[in-house]
Amino acid sequence: MQVFKVQGLKLLHGKIKVQGAKNAVLPMMAVSLLTEGRTEIRNVPRISDVFLMAEILRDLGCQVMFQDDVLEINASGLSGTVISEKTVGKMRSSSLLLGPLLSRAGEVTTWYPGGCVIGKRPIDFHLDVLRAMGAEILDDGGMLIAKAKKLCGTTFRFPYPSVGATENALMAAALASGTTKLLNCAREPEIVELCSFLRSMGAKISGERTGTITVDGVEKLFPTDHVTAGDRICAGTYLAAAAAAGGEIEITGVDPVVLVEPLKALRKMGAGIRISGATGPKARIGMVMERRPAGVEIDTGPYPGFPTDLQSVFLAVEAAGSGESRFKETVYEARFEAAMRLAAFGADVSLHKDTAIIRGRYPLVPGIAETPDLRGGAALLVAALAADGLSVISDSGHLKRGYEDIGRDLRKLGADIEEDEL
To answer: What distance lies between CA 290 and its chain's CA centroid?
Structure first.
């Protein structure tokens, strides 16, 4: 158990380079199963989800080396098709191995995945698109047994633009026979990056920015090298922290284009936003917050909408704001757990089905709380930065799933945070 002791009301100042994107690295690790030889991925965050995925790949017979921020995967020795129930229960992204294993080995045995408890998050769409490509999948009391002699191209419309299901379909279709046309796909930056990664391996993919993706199956994919994009959710978290605490910070290592909606929300709150330097990931995102955040209205949604992964932390900002805000959650029905825990800091939050109403008050009071999930944990830290006194937040490992060292990074920006291990 990790314990954060946060002394609030300290202005944040400084510069920070964000880590590589968790949600981009995990599918690229999974798709490495489709090649024989060494694939190298750089700018990889040293987070527990990456270590868990590496453990799964090793269990399947892959060679995995992870040093500093460089990950090397060689799947030439792939020998297993069973993913352990214990490991699967810890990480939802283990479901991303379904498509690659079916394509490479023709079979896979796994269980329904774990991860953060923020709603139902079924993998039905993953299974449906794989069945449409010719897979036979048996659900035996939570154990999934999937087989396919050869996956075939198909036309499939997703009922909802699921990121994980889109990724699984792309990985399965890359080596399938014929052409696969995927409709109503997710368009998140991580989807675009996965398609770029697959193309560098020899896949034929087009349309990933449009919501309709076409994949022409090829006979073979080849190892590749890749530099992971910066983590937009991590960047948004640190911008939110500065919005709650006040001050002036600069973020580097992430393309501002993937942060359009969060930056728009921060501007509405009253933050000064400046984009300077080079374009793309070499740009510098500067933010100044010299007032209490004004109230905003935010609806989460699939990209290019406001990311659900930033809902909790932005809600925490408005808990210490100067007006009334409304957050509507359209992606995960149970993502307001963090909102309820903000009551420990004196936050005025009321929930109405899929909507949270927040009436800002400042300063918040110091609180004692336990992190409910990955992003909810970050939200509690953000609230603690705006509390008048010492707050204590305990975390059973959620934060390490997505942030390399959130305490260290916030200290770099001037936050007064101490950490203990229990």
So the answer is: 30
Per-residue burial over 285-310, b if 16 or more Cβ lie within 10 Å, else e, is bbbebeebbbbbebbbbbbeebbbbb
| 104 SS3 class | helix
Check 62, 116, 185, 195 and give the catalytic one.
116
Contact 363, 319 (CB under 8 A): no
Q: Which residues contact 150 (CB under 8 A, 6 or more apart)?
A: 106, 134, 176, 177
CATH number of 2-18+230-421: 3.65.10.10
pLDDT tens digit string along 345-381?
999 999 999 999 999 999 999 999 999 999 999 999 9
Numbers of helices and strands, H then E, in the chain: 13, 23
Give the CATH superfamily of 22-218: Enolpyruvate transferase domain (3.65.10.10)
The residues with which 180 forms a beta bridge, in sequence order, are: 215
Examine domains 2-18+230-421 and 22-218 and report if their fold is the same. Answer: yes
Which pTM value belongs to this model? Answer: 0.96
The reply to whether 152 belongs to the active site is: no
